[in-house]
Amino acid sequence: MYKTEVRGPLILGDKNYRQISDDVIAPINNPIPGWWKFSFFIALMMGVFGILALYQTVAVGLGTWGVNNSVGWGWEIINFVWWIGIGHAGTAFSIFLLILRQKWRTSINRAAEAMTVVAVACAAIFPAIHMGRVWLAFFIFPYPNTRGPLWVNFNSPLFWDFIAISAYLLISASFWYFGIVPDFATIRDKATSKVKKAVYGFFAFGWTGSSREWLRYEALSYVLGGIAAVLVVSVHSIVSTDFAVSVIPGWHTTVFPPNFVVGAIFSGFAMVMTLMIIIRKMYKFQEYVTDSHLNAIAKILIFISLIMGTAYATEIFIAWYSGSQYEMFTFFKNRITGDYSFQFWAMVVCNAFIPQLFWFKKVRQNLTLAFIISIFINIGMWYERFNILITSLSKDYLPSSWTTYSPTWVEIGIYVGTLGFFAIGVLLFFKYIPMIAISEVKSVLKVTTLNPNDKKHTSHE
Amino acid sequence: MNKTRIVGVFDEENSLMAAVNEVKKEGIEINEIYTPYPMHEVIEAMGKKTRFTTAAFLYGFFGASGVLAFLYYTSVIDWPINYGGKPTNAFPSFIVVTIILTILTVTIASLFTFSARAAIFPGKVYDQPDERSTDDKFVIVFDKPGVEGNVEKLNAILKEKGALEVYEKELNLKK
Asked: Which domain holds residue A360?
């Protein structure tokens, strides 16, 4: 339960309702800043590179990639899992904090959900092109077809994955959109230009803010929140079954589902932190995204980092305890030492050790350091997926099929491209959609200013 | 319905609630209240309840049964395939798909229910008593024909409780 005495005020600077609307809408009305145009240009170039690489993949085939018979899943699946992981935080953030009635979520959830939608859309590219003949990707839909009808294999984790990702994309996008509807109405009613009024008016779906609308709106958000909480946990568990259901050493472990879910939330929260630091700095939202908000995210990151460290230790311990020579080989000869030991140690250092710096209050308050650490976490999480995929596949049971893997420019290009698409999506979000949930922030304004004496404490340390 | 309405505009939620309580004590019927953010007191005062959660449960129930039935039909009846000697009715591995598709069904059905019940859909033609209600004002609306004879008293109450403005307007609202 939220207590002002514990967390300090959620919004600083004695705002009133009108100031909140004006502050949040300001980036939409103001001219586009120079840094935005510059970043957009870079992102566009990256996107173009990605499209070229995608074109190459479709036109020539999967032979343009570095994958081979042993390492059948290369960068594409690493990046797929990485993006899905990042895409987890938005929904995890708003939904778990919604269910727990944590009011400090209100100024962050919109951006976190936007990030989710864009990241999951980026992730969805990878399995689609990995099918090889992407124009036949619709075969995976279980519809009555003229091929029998031959149904898909409902027992396959790859099919579960398809269902999970598409459902997740659809649900997180609609949850996000319906959250914005009242804010679109605010923009519509405050707009002075006719075009803006018409465009935002269309997207506001005729919202007026009547009690009849709010009643159902609240009910909808709790229903969606309740069921999507299950989805957040299940989606990445299902992604982990892509690996855990197989018999490859290093993959066939029961720790995978919880490990993947926690890892996903870890990288997602790190990305939320990266984004919120940028938004706060570039749009001067310090009074909404306060130091105390970032402090709270940092503390969550310490906790999750400890879980990650425990999971890594568990895997190593179980490899030894199992007595299976293949598991032992994978962990001790092919991860901790061996060709890919750099990736393993990069993962451990970035995920389990570096975030521990957040124990120090000085580090949590130094936003430059927090920004750098949040980037390191995402690098670490990328290495984690590399470590899981490539080490296990490159050296499995038969030494005759051992091989190495390195990506080609096409694979790198697709990854760079998705980074570009992500940046484009996020930048468009910055410009055209209110970055902070206006109505939700208004609803917590009173809580934070009920007793002016509470403002003296800014944090509970 | 197109009627003349009396619109009271408030600056602050406490004065709005004071007016709402007073008006209700006098037995004057409120048509609708518009607020910039969800207010539970307002929803309670309007005496509105929603059966949304019951509907969502039913969607979930029928969604889950439908998905399981579909999986059974496709895998066991229509085209049974031997996957490594596993039983065709592989119930445990159907659970994952069932959970996800149930969630999807509930979400989509809930969104449509919301759209229908709250009357929020693209291209809606609507009348808004006061545009500032999505920004920073709390707006209360009464039917003029419904408060016939009490108009003076109503205006006095609204003013006394701190309404910034009280005016009359032709509005085409739901009721």
From this structure: 16-132+152-448
> Is the distance from CB of B36 to CB of B135 less than 8 angstroms?
yes
Tally the domains of chain A: 1
Neighbours of A406 (CB within 10 A): 10
Out of 3.30.70.120, 3.40.190.10, 3.30.1310.20, 3.40.50.1010, which CATH number does the structure's domain B2-49+125-172 have? 3.30.70.120
pTM of structure: 0.89
Amino acid occupying residue A111? A
Cβ within 8 Å, pair B120-A218: no
B120-160 pLDDT, tens digit per residue, is 888 888 888 888 888 888 888 887 777 777 777 777 777 77
Would an 8 Å CB–CB cutoff place A299 in contact with chain B?
A: no
A223 touches chain B (CB under 8 A): yes
Indicate the pairing of strand B32-34 with strand B138-143.
antiparallel
Residue B61 touches partner A, C-beta closer than 8 Å: no
Q: What tens digit of pLDDT does each residue of A206-249 get?
A: 888 888 888 888 888 888 888 888 888 888 899 898 898 888 88
Our CA angle for B2, B3, B6, nearest 5°, is: 135
Residues 6+ apart with CB under 8 A from A85: A236, A260, A263, A264, A266, A267, A268, A381, A385
Q: Is there a domain that residue A34 lies in? A: yes
d(CA A43, CA A61): 26
Measured distance CA(A314)–CA(A311) in Å, rounded: 5
Q: How far apart are the first and last CA of chain B?
A: 6
- Angle between helices A367-386 and A341-348 in degrees, nearest 10: 140
The amino acid at residue A234 is: S
Whether cis (ω within 30° of 0) applies to the bond prior to A149 is: yes
Sign of CA dihedral A358, A362, A365, A367: negative
- Are A446 and B13 within 8 A, CB to CB? yes
C-alpha dihedral, B121 to B122 to B124 to B127, nearest 10°: 90
d(CA B89, CA A174): 34
Listed by start position, the domains of chain B span: 2-49+125-172, 52-117
With 0-12 / 13-18 / 19 or more C-beta atoms within 10 angstroms meaning exposed / middle / buried, residue A340 is buried
Q: How would DSSP label each residue in A28-67?
A: HHSPPPHHHHHHHHHHHHHHHHHHHHHHHHHHH-GGGSS-
Contact A167 B101 (CB under 8 A): yes
